[in-house]
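We modelled the chain as a single entity of 247 amino acids. Its sequence is:
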Amino acid sequence: MLTAGVDLAAESTGTALAVLDWSGAEVNAQVHLGTSDAEIAATAPKVATLGIDCAFGWPDDFVAFITRHARGDRVDSTVDAGMAWRRRLAYRATDRATRDITGRWPLSVATDRLGLTAMHCAVLLDAVSDALGAPVDRSGAGTAVEVYPSATLRGWQFDTRGYKNDADVRRTLVARLLERAPWLALDEETLALVVASDDAFDAVVAALAARAHALGLSHPVPHGYHEQARREGWIALPVGPLEDLAP
């Protein structure tokens, strides 16, 4: 089995790709920075699961609101007002489910800093669809699945404070990850890369989350939400410990 993880950025220069080979007793990792959409799309048919760290879509309520606003329709202040209404527009069903599981809100694709990256993701998903010969199921029912590396790490009981911005913190986190996953083989060059770059490190975690999803070890889409998840996307959060992924 091969799994891949993508830490997507607004541009390819900030995008990282990790491919993990689970066919032996050791899991070999190949990690690259500055990865193009074409390279990611070419990888998709070769792997069991491709985990992408980015929202696959926008909230249904947000899409409906901006469509009405573009038509010039007035906001119904008797219904559409207040923080509860704004939060409904800001967050997808999967964001609310993720908060229920983790206790934290993900960043909002509608109102936070994810918009440009999500636009990039829409283009990437088209390229992946072309490579696979079928549309991407944004609910995660196919090869591509939405993942959330920092929440994945917290679910595996790792302390993620400061790891995005501090190489020393990341070095400690990588060491603890390898203590619990001694089967994960990072050569000297790859180890240096994931310590130096949080993008490269998140791509590896995305590939691990993809492995969990491929094994059926992620929280499922709840009953009644599948159609919405196919539009908005659904974050695949692993169930159980990191150790369950061992080859």
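As a brief sanity check on the tokenised model: The chain has a mean pLDDT of 96. Strands lie at 2-7, 16-21, 27-33, 49-53, 144-146, 184-185.
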